[in-house]
Design goal:
This protein is α/β, with parallel strands linked by helices and about 375 residues long. The chain is built from ten helices and ten strands. It binds zinc ion (ZN).
């Protein structure tokens, strides 16, 4: 398996407010180091990509894609908030921009005042709350560089999947996307996520497919197996039927306001969103039952491409998860997904989401990738 890595994804190092404390975020650069270290003794091939050194036209193509999928003023906020706060004396250079006041609809009983919450405020403190939904996603000095590098890995993964010649067609690529992406919407950060890498990947697939000769409209499925519900990804595709979103996640856990079985999509997209919540404390046997349901629904959709949002906060010791999965279980999960004739064949982009036991993250990731490749032998 080719594993795409950009050194710039290691730069982002922020603080979060959690359990009444300001602390270094669990989502930290050492996560990537752990994965790279475990990959060293395997046959998986790490491919280093540097966004700054990319071909100009490809970089422009990527930047256009991010701009087309995410709110322009939100992106500008991510890019500039840290330097603006430092320049105004509101933050030490090593600190993180964190929100302290959010535009909440229930603030007003009168509907006529709700419009007050729609316009980006000019005050820098108010802006940080306007563009975030929690206090986990601090904006530090190098956050923007890592966010762009991470999203670019998603884009590059798609490009390589779709441009590989038929003779040696790549079936799967992993992108070590850090920071992760599945929680942020296209105008709000949250859950350690800033730009939604799955959204970028899916729209890149569509863009490349439209350029093929003859052009075509691909059907795509997203399988999200991070411990937490991918609210941002669900939200983006909720009313679309060409993209099926399926998520297995902890019931009633972060991000708390989404992830129920009743959320099935709307309008044209009704029936194209499947949430499979599992109670905290669930075992690998219970997990694999949900994987079976997820795979069955994806097979019905008959996608041309799969995007896999892969998190390892399902690991039994994870500080932010509550399932009972062990390292070898990741191989079993990967094999179960690929056991499907369809999913064993279609091109797949694997994106890294969460996973916060740094000491075990690398081995858990390798176990999954080994299980995934085993099916190909
Ligand atoms: Zn997670």
């Amino acid at each position: 398996m080719f594993v795409l890595f950009d050194p710039a994804t290691r730069l982002h190092k922020a603080e979060e407010f959690l359990s009444g404390k300001l602390m270094p975020a669990w989502e930290c650069p050492a996560r990537i180091d752990s994965i790279l270290s475990s990959l060293e003794s395997t046959n998986h091939q790490v491919v280093t990509i540097q966004l700054a050194g990319s071909d100009e036209s490809r970089s422009k193509d990527f930047c256009d894609l991010v701009a087309a999928t995410h709110d322009a003023s939100y992106l500008e906020h991510l890019r500039t908030a840290h330097s603006v706060w430092v320049a105004e004396g509101a933050l030490e250079p090593h600190g993180s921009v964190l929100p302290e006041c959010f535009p909440v609809k229930r603030l007003f009983n009168s509907r006529s005042l709700e419009g007050n919450l729609e316009q980006p405020p000019t005050d820098i403190f108010a802006r940080s709350g306007f563009y975030a939904f929690d206090m986990s996603s601090g904006i530090a000095e190098e956050t923007w560089a890592s966010v762009m590098a991470s999203a670019n890995l998603a884009y590059e993964g798609v490009r390589r999947l779709m441009e590989s010649g038929d003779g040696k067609r790549l079936k799967s690529i992993t992108a070590l996307t850090r920071p992760p992406g599945h929680h942020c919407t296209t105008s709000m950060s949250g859950g350690y996520c800033y730009v939604n890498n799955a959204v970028v990947a899916v729209e890149a697939i569509k863009k490349f497919a439209a350029r093929k000769n003859p052009p075509y409209k691909p059907k795509i499925a997203i399988l999200d197996i991070d411990f937490h519900h991918g609210n941002g990804t669900q939200d983006y595709f909720y009313s679309k039927r060409d993209v099926l979103y399926v998520s297995i996640h902890g019931q009633d856990e972060f991000p708390y306001y989404s992830g129920s079985e009743q959320e099935v999509g709307e309008g044209e997209g009704e029936g194209y969103n499947l949430n499979l919540p599992l109670p905290c404390g669930s075992s690998v046997e219970q997990y694999l039952e949900k994987v079976k349901l997820a795979v069955r629904r994806i097979e019905e959709h008959r996608p041309d491409y799969l995007v896999l949002s892969l998190g390892f906060d399902t690991y039994m010791l994870d500080p932010l998860g509550a399932f009972k999965l062990d390292t070898e279980d990741y191989a079993a999960i990967a094999e179960r997904i690929r056991f499907s004739d369809l999913l064993g064949q279609i091109p797949t982009l694997i994106l890294l989401e969460g996973g916060y036991v740094v000491e075990r993250l690398g081995d858990n990731c390798v176990a999954f990738l080994d299980g995934w490749e085993r099916r190909l032998d």
